[in-house]
Amino acid sequence: MTKHAFHLTRHASSHLYQFVSSPNLRLIQFCLTLVAIFFFSIGVGLAKKYVKPYSYWDLGTKNDFCEKVALGFMFVPFPWLAFLLVWHVLKKPKIHPGYYIGFDLYLGLSVLAAMLVLFNFSAYVLGTPSSVCDGWRYRKDPNLPALERCIRHAPAIRGIYCTAYVFAWIVGLMHVMFFGVACRVCDVYDREKKANNRLEKTGVILRSQSRSSSREHIV
Protein backbone atom coordinates (compact mmCIF):
# COMPACT_ATOMS: atom_id res chain seq x y z
CA MET A 1 0.00 0.00 0.00
CA THR A 2 1.37 3.37 -0.98
CA LYS A 3 1.67 6.35 1.29
CA HIS A 4 -1.14 8.10 -0.61
CA ALA A 5 -3.48 5.11 -0.14
CA PHE A 6 -2.59 4.97 3.53
CA HIS A 7 -3.71 8.56 4.07
CA LEU A 8 -6.99 7.88 2.25
CA THR A 9 -7.67 4.90 4.49
CA ARG A 10 -6.84 6.90 7.56
CA HIS A 11 -9.18 9.66 6.43
CA ALA A 12 -11.99 7.14 5.90
CA SER A 13 -11.49 5.51 9.30
CA SER A 14 -11.65 8.90 10.99
CA HIS A 15 -15.03 9.60 9.43
CA LEU A 16 -16.31 6.15 10.39
CA TYR A 17 -15.21 6.61 13.98
CA GLN A 18 -16.86 10.02 14.13
CA PHE A 19 -20.09 8.36 12.98
CA VAL A 20 -20.05 5.53 15.53
CA SER A 21 -19.10 7.88 18.37
CA SER A 22 -21.35 10.77 17.27
CA PRO A 23 -22.97 12.33 20.36
CA ASN A 24 -25.83 13.64 18.22
CA LEU A 25 -26.75 10.17 16.97
CA ARG A 26 -26.43 8.74 20.46
CA LEU A 27 -28.65 11.52 21.79
CA ILE A 28 -31.26 10.65 19.15
CA GLN A 29 -31.04 7.02 20.19
CA PHE A 30 -31.41 8.03 23.83
CA CYS A 31 -34.52 10.08 23.00
CA LEU A 32 -36.03 7.23 20.99
CA THR A 33 -35.54 4.96 23.98
CA LEU A 34 -37.40 7.50 26.14
CA VAL A 35 -40.21 7.63 23.58
CA ALA A 36 -40.58 3.83 23.66
CA ILE A 37 -40.67 3.91 27.46
CA PHE A 38 -43.26 6.70 27.33
CA PHE A 39 -45.62 4.75 25.06
CA PHE A 40 -45.22 1.53 27.05
CA SER A 41 -45.97 3.44 30.26
CA ILE A 42 -49.04 5.13 28.77
CA GLY A 43 -50.33 1.78 27.51
CA VAL A 44 -49.85 0.07 30.87
CA GLY A 45 -51.58 2.96 32.65
CA LEU A 46 -54.59 2.92 30.32
CA ALA A 47 -54.85 -0.85 30.49
CA LYS A 48 -54.90 -0.73 34.27
CA LYS A 49 -57.63 1.90 34.21
CA TYR A 50 -59.98 0.49 31.57
CA VAL A 51 -59.27 -3.23 31.29
CA LYS A 52 -57.84 -4.78 34.43
CA PRO A 53 -60.99 -4.81 36.60
CA TYR A 54 -63.01 -6.53 33.89
CA SER A 55 -60.57 -9.03 32.41
CA TYR A 56 -60.78 -12.70 33.32
CA TRP A 57 -57.06 -13.04 32.77
CA ASP A 58 -56.30 -10.11 35.07
CA LEU A 59 -54.50 -7.76 32.71
CA GLY A 60 -52.21 -6.53 35.44
CA THR A 61 -50.45 -9.88 35.71
CA LYS A 62 -51.06 -11.74 32.44
CA ASN A 63 -52.59 -9.90 29.49
CA ASP A 64 -50.04 -7.09 29.46
CA PHE A 65 -47.25 -9.10 31.04
CA CYS A 66 -45.26 -8.85 27.77
CA GLU A 67 -45.60 -5.06 27.69
CA LYS A 68 -44.49 -4.72 31.30
CA VAL A 69 -41.43 -6.84 30.58
CA ALA A 70 -40.73 -4.75 27.47
CA LEU A 71 -41.07 -1.56 29.52
CA GLY A 72 -38.47 -2.77 31.99
CA PHE A 73 -36.21 -4.05 29.21
CA MET A 74 -36.06 -0.63 27.56
CA PHE A 75 -34.10 0.65 30.57
CA VAL A 76 -31.24 -1.76 29.75
CA PRO A 77 -29.55 0.48 27.09
CA PHE A 78 -29.70 3.54 29.38
CA PRO A 79 -26.36 3.06 31.21
CA TRP A 80 -24.39 2.68 27.96
CA LEU A 81 -26.03 5.63 26.20
CA ALA A 82 -25.76 7.84 29.28
CA PHE A 83 -22.09 6.90 29.66
CA LEU A 84 -21.32 7.87 26.05
CA LEU A 85 -23.10 11.23 26.38
CA VAL A 86 -21.39 12.07 29.68
CA TRP A 87 -18.03 10.93 28.27
CA HIS A 88 -18.45 13.34 25.37
CA VAL A 89 -19.50 16.22 27.62
CA LEU A 90 -16.43 15.69 29.81
CA LYS A 91 -14.27 15.62 26.64
CA LYS A 92 -12.51 12.42 27.61
CA PRO A 93 -10.13 10.55 25.25
CA LYS A 94 -11.57 8.52 22.41
CA ILE A 95 -13.01 5.13 23.29
CA HIS A 96 -11.55 2.13 21.50
CA PRO A 97 -14.02 0.87 18.85
CA GLY A 98 -13.87 -2.56 20.43
CA TYR A 99 -16.08 -1.29 23.24
CA TYR A 100 -18.67 -0.18 20.71
CA ILE A 101 -18.56 -3.62 19.13
CA GLY A 102 -19.17 -5.39 22.43
CA PHE A 103 -21.86 -3.18 23.95
CA ASP A 104 -23.77 -2.36 20.78
CA LEU A 105 -23.81 -5.99 19.66
CA TYR A 106 -25.14 -7.15 23.02
CA LEU A 107 -27.74 -4.39 23.34
CA GLY A 108 -28.84 -4.56 19.71
CA LEU A 109 -29.42 -8.30 19.62
CA SER A 110 -30.97 -8.31 23.11
CA VAL A 111 -33.46 -5.54 22.38
CA LEU A 112 -34.45 -6.90 18.96
CA ALA A 113 -34.82 -10.49 20.15
CA ALA A 114 -36.73 -9.54 23.30
CA MET A 115 -39.13 -7.22 21.49
CA LEU A 116 -39.75 -9.76 18.75
CA VAL A 117 -40.62 -12.50 21.24
CA LEU A 118 -42.74 -10.24 23.45
CA PHE A 119 -44.55 -8.79 20.42
CA ASN A 120 -45.51 -12.24 19.16
CA PHE A 121 -46.79 -13.32 22.57
CA SER A 122 -48.63 -10.09 23.37
CA ALA A 123 -52.33 -10.50 24.09
CA TYR A 124 -53.02 -7.06 22.64
CA VAL A 125 -51.19 -7.74 19.38
CA LEU A 126 -52.57 -11.25 18.80
CA GLY A 127 -55.95 -10.86 20.47
CA THR A 128 -59.07 -8.82 19.83
CA PRO A 129 -60.80 -6.25 22.05
CA SER A 130 -63.46 -8.78 22.96
CA SER A 131 -60.88 -11.40 23.93
CA VAL A 132 -58.98 -8.89 26.04
CA CYS A 133 -62.16 -7.75 27.79
CA ASP A 134 -63.82 -11.15 28.11
CA GLY A 135 -63.92 -11.19 31.90
CA TRP A 136 -67.63 -10.35 31.94
CA ARG A 137 -68.42 -13.90 30.79
CA TYR A 138 -67.07 -15.30 34.05
CA ARG A 139 -68.60 -12.77 36.43
CA LYS A 140 -71.88 -13.42 38.22
CA ASP A 141 -72.83 -9.77 37.89
CA PRO A 142 -71.08 -8.39 34.81
CA ASN A 143 -70.67 -4.64 34.56
CA LEU A 144 -71.81 -4.10 30.98
CA PRO A 145 -71.06 -0.33 30.80
CA ALA A 146 -67.54 -1.06 32.04
CA LEU A 147 -67.22 -3.87 29.51
CA GLU A 148 -68.27 -1.57 26.68
CA ARG A 149 -65.77 1.03 27.88
CA CYS A 150 -63.07 -1.64 27.95
CA ILE A 151 -63.82 -2.78 24.41
CA ARG A 152 -63.92 0.82 23.23
CA HIS A 153 -60.46 1.63 24.62
CA ALA A 154 -58.73 -1.69 23.86
CA PRO A 155 -57.91 -0.82 20.19
CA ALA A 156 -56.32 2.48 21.24
CA ILE A 157 -54.23 0.69 23.87
CA ARG A 158 -53.17 -1.84 21.26
CA GLY A 159 -52.10 0.98 18.93
CA ILE A 160 -50.06 2.58 21.72
CA TYR A 161 -48.30 -0.71 22.45
CA CYS A 162 -47.57 -1.31 18.75
CA THR A 163 -46.08 2.20 18.50
CA ALA A 164 -43.89 1.47 21.52
CA TYR A 165 -42.66 -1.75 19.90
CA VAL A 166 -41.78 0.12 16.70
CA PHE A 167 -39.63 2.64 18.57
CA ALA A 168 -38.00 -0.18 20.53
CA TRP A 169 -37.08 -1.94 17.29
CA ILE A 170 -35.61 1.27 15.91
CA VAL A 171 -33.41 1.56 19.01
CA GLY A 172 -32.27 -2.04 18.58
CA LEU A 173 -31.52 -1.55 14.88
CA MET A 174 -29.45 1.54 15.68
CA HIS A 175 -27.36 -0.52 18.08
CA VAL A 176 -26.79 -3.13 15.35
CA MET A 177 -25.89 -0.36 12.89
CA PHE A 178 -23.31 1.10 15.29
CA PHE A 179 -21.93 -2.40 15.82
CA GLY A 180 -21.43 -2.86 12.08
CA VAL A 181 -19.71 0.52 11.68
CA ALA A 182 -17.47 -0.19 14.69
CA CYS A 183 -16.43 -3.49 13.09
CA ARG A 184 -15.50 -1.58 9.95
CA VAL A 185 -13.53 0.94 12.00
CA CYS A 186 -11.51 -1.86 13.63
CA ASP A 187 -10.86 -3.41 10.22
CA VAL A 188 -9.66 -0.09 8.80
CA TYR A 189 -7.50 0.57 11.86
CA ASP A 190 -5.91 -2.84 11.42
CA ARG A 191 -5.19 -2.07 7.76
CA GLU A 192 -3.71 1.27 8.76
CA LYS A 193 -1.44 -0.39 11.29
CA LYS A 194 -0.19 -2.95 8.80
CA ALA A 195 0.32 -0.26 6.15
CA ASN A 196 2.19 1.91 8.61
CA ASN A 197 4.43 -1.00 9.58
CA ARG A 198 5.20 -1.69 5.92
CA LEU A 199 6.03 1.96 5.37
CA GLU A 200 8.36 1.97 8.36
CA LYS A 201 10.09 -1.22 7.19
CA THR A 202 10.42 0.23 3.69
CA GLY A 203 11.93 3.41 5.13
CA VAL A 204 14.41 1.42 7.21
CA ILE A 205 15.45 -0.63 4.17
CA LEU A 206 15.86 2.47 2.02
CA ARG A 207 17.95 4.19 4.68
CA SER A 208 20.08 1.09 5.06
CA GLN A 209 20.61 0.84 1.31
CA SER A 210 21.42 4.53 1.15
CA ARG A 211 24.07 4.15 3.85
CA SER A 212 25.56 1.13 2.13
CA SER A 213 25.79 2.92 -1.20
CA SER A 214 27.37 5.93 0.51
CA ARG A 215 30.03 3.74 2.11
CA GLU A 216 30.78 2.03 -1.19
CA HIS A 217 31.12 5.41 -2.88
CA ILE A 218 33.54 6.61 -0.21
CA VAL A 219 35.68 3.48 -0.54
The helix/strand order is HHHHHHHH
- Which geometry do the CA atoms define? elongated
Low-confidence stretches: 1-9, 56-61
Helical amount: over 70%
Q: Quote the distance from N terminus to C terminus.
A: 36 Å
Q: Write down the overall mean pLDDT.
A: 77
Describe what you observe in this structure.
The protein has helices at 3-20, 23-50, 65-73, 78-89, 97-120, 123-126, 129-132, 144-218. By secondary structure, the chain is mostly helical. The longest helix is centred in the last third of the chain and has 75 residues, at 144-218. The radius of gyration is 28 Å and the shape is elongated. The model is unreliable at 1-9 and 56-61 (pLDDT under 50).
Question: What's a quick, concise take on this entry?
Answer:
The protein has 219 residues and is mostly helical.
Structural descriptors:
single chain, mainly alpha, 219 residues
Map the helices and strands.
Elements (H helix, E strand, L loop, with lengths): L2 H18 L2 H28 L14 H9 L4 H12 L7 H24 L2 H4 L2 H4 L11 H75 L1
Helix pairs in contact: 1-8, 2-3, 2-4, 2-8, 3-5, 5-8
